[in-house]
C-alpha cells in the first residue's frame, strides 16, 4: 500500500466501531437483560464443565482513584478518603461468597486480575485481606497467573512486595505520555523518574512480566513528543506495551473529558501516523505486534500465546490464557460464562447496596444465542489471529454470503483475502481488523444504531 492510498483508506474506514472485547458488544445485549436465575444457571454450567481441568478466572474491579485524569474512559470513582477501602473490600468478599454458595465444588482459581480505577489506591493490608478472603473458599490452580494494574504515582514497595508474596507475577503501569504539555492537558503529572523507580523495584522484587500503557491521539501530542515518550518507555524494557488509540467518548464520560479542547487532539491521518511511528519504534527496539494494540518482547508469554494461536480477548483486552468462566467482582465488572454475560451495578453506592441485600449485583446481561456463539468465535479468531474459517460444522453461518458481500470492498481495497472456506486479514491491514469484524457483526447489521455509541475504529 502506498502512503497515498493508505491515507484514503484511513479516511474511508475510520468510522465509529466496537473494540470487540465481547460479542455481542454491550450496546447490543438484550434490552430486557438477564434474570439472576438464568445468570446463575449459566455460571453453574460453565463451572461444572471447566473448573476441574482449566479452572476459573476472577476479575476484581477496584474503582477508586485519588485524582481524575481527564482522558479516562474507565469506570472510576474519585476520592482522597481512604476510609472507603474497608467497606469496599468487605462487599467484594460478600459478593464472592454469593457465587461460592451456588457452586457445587471448590473453585480452582487460575487467573486473577485486579483492574480499575486504581488497585494500588488500596493499602497493602486491605489487598492482602481481600486475596486471603477469596482463598478461604477456593484453591489455587496448578498453573496460575495473577496480575494487577498500578498507578506509578501511588504504588509503594510494600504493595508490590505484598502482592508478590500473594502470588502476583505480572503488573501493568499506566504511563500514557511523558510530555509535560500533554500531561498538563490530561491532568496527569507523572515524572519519568517515578516510573523508573517503581519499574526497577518491581524487577528487583521478581515480577516476571511488566507492562506499560501508552496512548496515542492524546491532546497536544506530536511526532516529536511520541518519539521521546517511546524512547523513555523502551529504555526500561517492559515485557509488554499496550499502545492504545485514545478513545474520545465525551458523550459517555461527559465533562470529565473536557480538560482540553477538541482542536488540541491529533486528527485522523496525523493520529494514524502517530500509531505507525510508534509501531516502527517498537519494532526497532525488538518488540513484536500482538493483536490490535499490544506489543511484546519475544520472550513474553503473550508472544508465545500468539505464535501458538492461544491468544484470547476479553473485557480486559488481550490475554495469554482463557478460561470458560470469568467471574467479575466489584462495581461495574463484567462476568463471562461463555454462554452469557452479566454486568454489575455501575455506581459504587448501588453496587454496595445490592450486595448488602444478599443479591448478586447484576444490572444487565445477555444470554448468547447459538448464532451469537458462532459469530463470537469468528470475531475472536479475527481479533487474535487475523483469520477465520467456516469449514468446520460448528463454525458454519447461514449468512456467510451476506458477510462476504459486506467484505467485497475491503477485498477490492487489498485489505483481506477471501477463499472458499476462510478469510485472511493481510498483515498490512492489521489496523483495519475492527472494520473486518464489523462485517461479521450480525447484531450491528440488524440494529443500525442511531447516534454515536462507539469510538472511531482507527
Ligand atoms: C484502569 S487504567 C490503569 C491503572 C491506573 N488507574 C493508572 O491510571 O495508572 C487502565 C488503562 O486504560 C487506558 N485508558 C483509559 N482511558 C482511555 C481512553 N479514553 N482511551 C484509551 N485508553 C484509555 C489507560 O492507558 C490506562 O492506563
Ligand atoms: S487513568 Fe487511571 S488514575 Fe486516571 S482516572 Fe483513569 S483509572 Fe483513575
Structural account:
- This protein has 458 residues and is an alpha/beta fold.
- The chain is 39% helix and 21% strand.
- Helix 4 runs parallel beside helix 5 (157-165), helix 5 (157-165) packs parallel to helix 7 and helix 8 packs parallel to helix 10 (268-284).
- It is globular.
- The two termini are 17 Å apart.
Describe the secondary-structure layout:
Elements lengths: L2 H11 L22 H15 L5 E7 L1 E2 L11 E2 L5 H19 L5 E9 L7 H12 L3 E12 L6 H9 L2 E9 L3 H6 L6 H14 L3 E8 L6 H14 L3 E6 L4 H4 L14 H17 L3 E3 L3 E3 L4 H7 L4 E3 L2 E3 L6 E4 L4 E3 L3 E5 L3 H9 L5 E6 L2 H16 L1 E3 L10 H7 L1 H5 L3 E3 L3 E4 L7 H8 L1 H6 L11
Parallel strand pairs: 1-4, 1-13, 2-3, 4-5, 5-6, 6-7, 7-8
Antiparallel strand pairs: 8-10, 9-10, 11-12, 14-15, 15-16, 17-19, 18-19
The chain binds S-adenosylmethionine and iron/sulfur cluster.
Amino acid at each position: 500500500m502506498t502512503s497515498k492510498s493508505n491515507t484514503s483508506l484511513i479516511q474511508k474506514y475510520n468510522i465509529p466501531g466496537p473494540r470487540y472485547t465481547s460479542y455481542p458488544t454491550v450496546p447490543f445485549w438484550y434490552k430486557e437483560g438477564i434474570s439472576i436465575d438464568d445468570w446463575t444457571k449459566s455460571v453453574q454450567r460453565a463451572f461444572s464443565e471447566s473448573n476441574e481441568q482449566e479452572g476459573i478466572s476472577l476479575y476484581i474491579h477496584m474503582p477508586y482513584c485519588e485524582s481524575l485524569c481527564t482522558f479516562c474512559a474507565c469506570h472510576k470513582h474519585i476520592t482522597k478518603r481512604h476510609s472507603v477501602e474497608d467497606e469496599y473490600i468487605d462487599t467484594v468478599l460478600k459478593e464472592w461468597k454469593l457465587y461460592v454458595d451456588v457452586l457445587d465444588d471448590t473453585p480452582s482459581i487460575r487467573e486473577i486480575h485486579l483492574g480499575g480505577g486504581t488497585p494500588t489506591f488500596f493499602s497493602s493490608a486491605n489487598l492482602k485481606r481481600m486475596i486471603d478472603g477469596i482463598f478461604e473458599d477456593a484453591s489455587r490452580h496448578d498453573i496460575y497467573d495473577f496480575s494487577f494494574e498500578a498507578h506509578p504515582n501511588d504504588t509503594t514497595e510494600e504493595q508490590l512486595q505484598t502482592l508478590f508474596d500473594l502470588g502476583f507475577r505480572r503488573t501493568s503501569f499506566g504511563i500514557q505520555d511523558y510530555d509535560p504539555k500533554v500531561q498538563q492537558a490530561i491532568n496527569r503529572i507523572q515524572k519519568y523518574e517515578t516510573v523508573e523507580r517503581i519499574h526497577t523495584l518491581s524487577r528487583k522484587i521478581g515480577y516476571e512480566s511488566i507492562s506499560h500503557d501508552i496512548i496515542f491521539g492524546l491532546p497536544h501530542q506530536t511526532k516529536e513528543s511520541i518519539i521521546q515518550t517511546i524512547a523513555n518507555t523502551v529504555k526500561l524494557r517492559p515485557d509488554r506495551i499496550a499502545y492504545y488509540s485514545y478513545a474520545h467518548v465525551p458523550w459517555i464520560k461527559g465533562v470529565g473529558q473536557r480538560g482540553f479542547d477538541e482542536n488540541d487532539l491529533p486528527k485522523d491521518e496525523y493520529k494514524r501516523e502517530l500509531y505507525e511511528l510508534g509501531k516502527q519504534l517498537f519494532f526497532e527496539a525488538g518488540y513484536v505486534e500482538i493483536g490490535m494494540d499490544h506489543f511484546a518482547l519475544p520472550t513474553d508469554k503473550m508472544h508465545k500465546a500468539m505464535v501458538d494461536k492461544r491468544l484470547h480477548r476479553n473485557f480486559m483486552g488481550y490475554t495469554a490464557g482463557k478460561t470458560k468462566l470469568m467471574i467479575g467482582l466489584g462495581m461495574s465488572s463484567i462476568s463471562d460464562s461463555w454462554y452469557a454475560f452479566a454486568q454489575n451495578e455501575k455506581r459504587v453506592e448501588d453496587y454496595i447496596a445490592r450486595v448488602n441485600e444478599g443479591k448478586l449485583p447484576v444490572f444487565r446481561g445477555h444470554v448468547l444465542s447459538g448464532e451469537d456463539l458462532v459469530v463470537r468465535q469468528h470475531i475472536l479468531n479475527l481479533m487474535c489471529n487475523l483469520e477465520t474459517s467456516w469449514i468446520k460444522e460448528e463454525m458454519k453461518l447461514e449468512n456467510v454470503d451476506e458477510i462476504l458481500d459486506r467484505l467485497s470492498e475491503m477485498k477490492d481495497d487489498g485489505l483481506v483475502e477471501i477463499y472458499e472456506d476462510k478469510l485472511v486479514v493481510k498483515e498490512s491491514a492489521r489496523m483495519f481488523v475492527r472494520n473486518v469484524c464489523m462485517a461479521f457483526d450480525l447484531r450491528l447489521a440488524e440494529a443500525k444504531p442511531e447516534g454515536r455509541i462507539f469510538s472511531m475504529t482507527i
